[in-house]
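Mods, move this if it's the wrong board.
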Amino acid sequence: MNTIPFLITIDTEGDNLWQSNAEISARNARFLPRFQSLCEEHGFKPCYLTNYEMASDPDYQAFARSAIAGGNAEVGMHLHAWNSPPAHPATDRGGKAQAYLIEYPRAAMQAKIDFMTKLLEDTFGVKMLSHRAGRWAFNEVYAELLLEYGYRIDCSVTPHVDWSGTPGATAGGSDYRRFPDRAYFVDPADISKAGDSPLLEVPMTTRPKYPGWVQALKTGADRLRGKRRPASIVWMRPRGGNARQMIALAEQRLAAGADYIEFMLHSSEFMPGGSPTFRDEAAIEGLYADLDELFRYLAPRCEGLTLADYHRRLTRGADRS
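Not the wrong board. Structure tokens:
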């Protein structure tokens, strides 16, 4: 029996949010069945981490209800604070700044989490257990609120990545360079450390592209040129033509004794023109060629689990209610 879980996480959100949109559309929902079929073909079970516009879209609602009913997928929460009700104009700023939820007052954070949790649970008829923060921004207040609303899994941490130079409404994002790269139950007083809460952090599968000394030389050279660039990171994420790189990352993590591999993509990236990376039909066909190659490599080595399945595996027989 395969014992290393392969966890597929999809940030399920509106079309091409990399560009400014007067109105956010959700046409990419119509392109998800093809991806779901590929996952089922290989025995994998995606977790669709769903935001406001997708939860409100009839096509996505029908798709997700069917996938849940068949036991072939999970729906969780993905919260884009800047366009998720209730409005908080002082921080939302009309969505132009794409504010991090951690920039809002605690009461506004709670109101948005409350709204989204109830919307998702009422729409899909299942308890929300899994979550990923919009734009990867997470902190102790956020963790406390997730626990209050009964969430049991977060997957917002991106090891080795510093988002502090990526602006929101008033500040930068989270710095995860000193966070673990393996799953751990969070200490609510310090989310970078393991504790005894029931909230399981499942960090993304990433690794530095270069050895530390090479990255230090590159950073020093950039500093001399007056530039500041983030460290180069390899993700378990399609970029177009990077199947072999993702397989090499999986090989490295498996050889290092990883207890899971976590993949991510945005739902809009399955639609031609839904993202800057996959602009047309040819790019989408290339994406599916990469996915098929990666999934064929992983299928004999990994077991398809949702995030909730993985949490249940780790807590079986343990008291983490």
